TrEMBL record:
Belongs to the small GTPase superfamily. Rab family. Keywords: GTP-binding, Lipoprotein, Nucleotide-binding, Prenylation. It comes from Helicostylum pulchrum. This is Uncharacterized protein. InterPro entries: P-loop_NTPase, Small_GTP-bd, Small_GTPase. SMART domains: RAB (SM00175), RAN (SM00176), RAS (SM00173), RHO (SM00174).
């Protein structure tokens, strides 16, 4: 079966910049207004996989349910990759994803995860590049290395690169 839609879910604490990263990637726009999205939704964009296939990447964003600590099964169901956006603390979100997506243990170990440390335009960082890499290393496996990007939804640094990389990580049958 040829799969041509990739479901990608954005997860991470409220306020880390998930919505801003998606806006920057899709519309090349940034606004300082903090507006909780109403109803989880997705936006679709055509991207190219590693072997040159065109696929539609569906990028899901939350409706602000992250305030309730968990996004629930419907949001995660059928995801092909997840993007962990952080500025402070990641572990809880990875655990929540793996728990609620009900992947078999073996599959969960190799599931495509990509990290985006957002807001690099701000000087006062709390997570060093080394800490982020070390975290990714611990949770990577022989078959799945978690790539770490640092980006700014505000000025657009690395946003295109990070999202385009997702399509390169997903195996399409
Ligand atoms: P979400 O809750 O994860 O969707 O976060 P938002 O995208 O709504 O962003 C939360 C706040 O952080 C907003 O005030 C954004 O303007 C701000 N923000 C998001 N990304 C960046 C960034 O890269 N740099 C800076 N300086 N602020 C950002
Ligand atoms: Mg949001």
């Amino acid at each position: 079966m040829h799969k041509d839609i990739l479901k990608v879910v954005l997860i991470g604490d409220g306020g880390v910049g998930k919505t801003s990263l998606r806006n920057q990637y899709i519309h090349k726009k940034f606004t300082n207004a903090y507006k909780a999205t109403i109803g989880a939704d997705f936006i679709t964009k055509e991207v190219e996989t590693d072997d040159g296939k065109k696929v539609m990447m569906q990028i899901w964003d939350t409706a602000g349910q992250e305030r309730f600590q968990s996004l629930g099964v419907a949001y995660y169901r059928g995801a092909d990759a997840c993007v962990l956006v952080y500025d402070l603390f990641l572990e809880r979100w990875r655990e929540d994803f793996l728990k609620q997506s009900s992947l078999p243990t073996e599959e969960a170990r190799h599931f495509p995860i990509l990290m985006i440390g957002n807001k690099i335009d701000i000087d006062d960082r709390v997570v060093s590049r080394r800490q982020a890499r070390a975290w990714a290393e611990i949770h990577s496996s022989d078959k799945m290395q978690i790539p770490c990007f640092e980006a700014s939804a505000k000025n657009g640094d690395n946003v295109e690169k990070a999202f385009a990389h997702i399509a390169k990580m997903v195996k399409i049958p």
